[in-house]
Every structure is written in structure tokens, then in C-alpha cells.
Amino acid sequence: MPHRRASASDLGLSKTRTKLFRSGSTLVDVLHDKGFISLRSAQTLLGSLEQSVKRKPEGYPLTFSASLCDRVSKVISSNSLSERDKLHREMKSLEAVSRIASSSTKQERVLEKCLNLLRELVPFQNGAIFVLRENTGKLELEATVGYPQDLIERVQFDLGQGLSAWAARERRSVLVKELARPEKEGLPPLGSFLAVPIIAGARSVGVITMGHPEPGVFVNHHKSTLQLFCTLISGSVLSTISERQTEGVAAA
Questions:
Q1: How many CB atoms sit inside 10 A of residue 28's CB?
Q2: Any bridge partners for residue 206, and if so which?
Q3: Would you state the pLDDT for residue 70?
Q4: DSSP assignment, residue 88?
Q5: Burial classification of residue 137, based on how many CB atoms lie within 10 Å of its CB (0-12 exposed, 13-18 middle, 19 or more buried)
Q6: Lowest mean pLDDT among 89-93, 155-159, 216-220
Q7: What is the per-residue pLDDT across 150-192, written as a single tens digit (0 to 9) for each?
Q8: For residues 192 and 216, is the Cβ–Cβ distance under 8 A?
Q9: pLDDT of residue 109
Q10: What's the rounded Cα separation, in Å, for the pair 149 and 138?
Q11: What pLDDT score does 65 carry?
Q12: Comparing C-alpha atoms, which of 242, 231, 208 is closest to residue 63?
């Protein structure tokens, strides 16, 4: 029987599983070093982690778990009470996002509610969620708070126009900390910009962008928080894509 070559999706999932195991192992080591758990408990957790990583069928829950492990490890290692309080608030907000994202209400309302909750985690003034349309292969605006902002809007990419389309195509986050774009033609000023792709499985299904009129507002921590957020809402985005496809067939 011929040996099947591993697909790009298989390789990506394998790398994500490896990343999660390393992140989880680091977290267990930190908990043991700080005296939160015994050596026996640490060994049990590592065994459970190894089995859990092998069983998980999808990539995006693994990515979320790995990012969460990294963040918790850093906070515990810092011995900072303020950082621990901050982590607690963030986890409460992300829990609320997860609860809304898994609700059965109409998806466009779900994404709008999640975007509003995101304000508790990232200090943006203008934010938008763009979702891929299967029939056109382009990104379209699905939910917004304030005004949808972008950079290099007139440049055309495979998935649409602007830096947001590039971020979605390349599956790479973009953080521009210092801008000096004044208000013009009715558009609000832009001093800070952030765009993060929404990944489901091995493909990009959307992108979220946010802007603030003041420079230096967004930092790397906000980018990683937004990446966690995108992981949580990826299921809702897939449902939105399916809804739009069904609506298109019904209208034809």
C-alpha cells in the first residue's frame, strides 16, 4: 500500500500539537517550581496533556490552549499581583466571548456582541470583522463598532483591498504602533492599527481590524489577546459563512 504524503494541513496540525505540548509542559514546570503542585501531580498532568494533544482533532482549539498556557506561565513567573488580577479580568472577558460565540442566536448579532466585548480587552475606538464569502472569494464587512478602518485601502489583493486582505491571505497579524494619518474626507484619524486573521483549521476565513486615533495605543499584548479572541470566534465565523451561502442559494 503506497505511503500517503502528509498534507500542509497535517503538517500544520502536527506543529500546533508540538507547540501546545511545549507550552503546556512549561506551564506545568512553572506550577511545580512555584510550589502550586507536587511532583506527582506534575507528572500526571504531563501524561494527561500528552494524551489530550494526541486526541484533539482540530487545530484552532490547540492554538488557543497553547497561547493561554504561555500567558499563564509568564504571569505566574512574574510574581506580580497586578498581572494576576489583569489575567483574571482577561479570562473572565474571554469566557464571556466564548459563551456568546457558542450561542444559537443569529451569527451576525453574535459577532457584533463579541466585538463589543472586545473593548474590555483592547482599547480600540473603531473595529470591524470581515468574513470570507464563498461565492466571491472576497472579504466582506460583517460586524463593526464605530468605523471600519484599514491601511493601503486602494491596493488589491486576492481576498480584497487593503492591509486587512493581505493579513487574511498571508495568515499573519499586523501591528502598526505609530501612525499619523489625519482626518480626511469624513474618515476618522488613525494613529494605531491592528489586523489579525481569523483561522479555522488550516484556512483563513476572515480578519478583524481595529484602529485608534492616538499613536502608541496598541502593543504586542493587545495583538496576542486579539489572536485568542479570533480563535474563540472562528466557529461563529464558519457558521456565518454557511448562513450566507445558504441565503445566496435560496435567493438564486
A1: 22
A2: 131, 198
A3: 64
A4: H
A5: exposed
A6: 89-93
A7: 898 888 888 999 999 999 999 999 999 999 888 877 788 999 9
A8: yes
A9: 83
A10: 17
A11: 61
A12: 231
At the fourth CATH level, which superfamily is domain 88-251?
GAF domain (3.30.450.40)
In this structure, the strands spanning 160-161 and 174-176 are unpaired
Q: Which residues contact 192 (CB under 8 A, 6 or more apart)?
A: 176, 177, 178, 179, 211, 212, 214, 215, 216, 217, 218
- Separation of alpha carbons 140 and 168, rounded Å: 12
Quote the longest CA-to-CA distance of the chain: 64
Among candidates 211, 215, 129, 223, which has minimal Cα distance to 172? 223
Domain boundaries, the chain: 8-76, 88-251
Burial environment of residue 177 by CB neighbours within 10 A (0 to 12, 13 to 18, 19 or more): middle
At position 113, the amino acid (one-letter code) is: K
Question: In the chain, pLDDT over 90 holds for what percent of residues?
Answer: 26
Q: Please tell me the predicted confidence (pLDDT) of residue 39.
A: 83
Residue 81 identity: L
CA dist 228 and 60 (Å) reads: 10
Instruction: Tell me the pLDDT band of 195, cut-offs 50, 70 and 90.
Output: very high
Q: Compute φ and ψ for 187, nearest 5 degrees.
A: -90, 140
The DSSP annotation for 1-65 comes to -PPPPPPHHHHHHHHHHHHHHHHHHHHHHHHHHTTSS-HHHHHHHHHHHHHHHHH---HHHHHHH
